[in-house]
């Protein structure tokens, strides 16, 4: 690292401390959703492989969760693999699934996070299904940030699964379709979502400069604030996180009365 890079790094750290010092913890989002985008483009810009980009993105996760813990965030939902990702070439998908499985094990072994899976588990290889189940069971007692791992996740699929769950629940209770039609409402459907027992996201962060949700938590983000960051996920820094938090706090104060 040359002198210019060292100086730039020092200035970024000093700026981050200044932003953090002015952060109002009373205005911190309770639930943050993250669309971790840009692994492949980061790797391409670095002259490296896609697999290396996914590994670098995976390594960023615990660092990010550490920042969240410092600012009193209670729930984090990380989108690791969409239902559409299963259409990727096998030479990219297979290593990616292995990297994600390693992430699940690492987070479960950390001891600070309560791991939960959100998504369609049946789409996943049997080994990953077992790993997710073991991680959930091993961390069920943890009194820390709830970390939702969106793996095999699609927003439309989640709503379809919620409606299916609601219908099956009504059938099991002997409720007729006519009676269900009379009583179904937004709250009822919401209770059958993957995150039905959790607060909805207050803030959604997407990296890499893309300004769309791509189906992420379609139902739950109706009232969320969005923060789009130009930085690719593996290069996401604490100062970028703090800027998102500061931006959210300013909007929360303005719109919250």
UniProtKB/TrEMBL annotation:
Enzyme class: transferase
One Gene Ontology biological process: polyprenol biosynthetic process
Molecular function as annotated in GO: ditrans,polycis-polyprenyl diphosphate synthase [(2E,6E)-farnesyl diphosphate specific] activity; magnesium ion binding; Z-farnesyl diphosphate synthase activity
Annotated InterPro entries: UPP_synth-like, UPP_synth-like_CS, UPP_synth-like_sf
Binding site for substrate: 38-42, 54, 82-84, 86, 88, 206, 212-214
Enzyme Commission code(s) on record: 2.5.1.-
Co-factor(s): Mg(2+)
Keywords on record: Magnesium, Metal-binding, Transferase
Family: Belongs to the UPP synthase family. Z-FPP synthase subfamily.
Subunit details: Homodimer.
PANTHER family for the chain: DEHYDRODOLICHYL DIPHOSPHATE SYNTHASE COMPLEX SUBUNIT DHDDS, DEHYDRODOLICHYL DIPHOSPHATE SYNTHASE FAMILY MEMBER
Name by which UniProt lists this protein: Isoprenyl transferase
Organism of provenance: Streptomyces cupreus
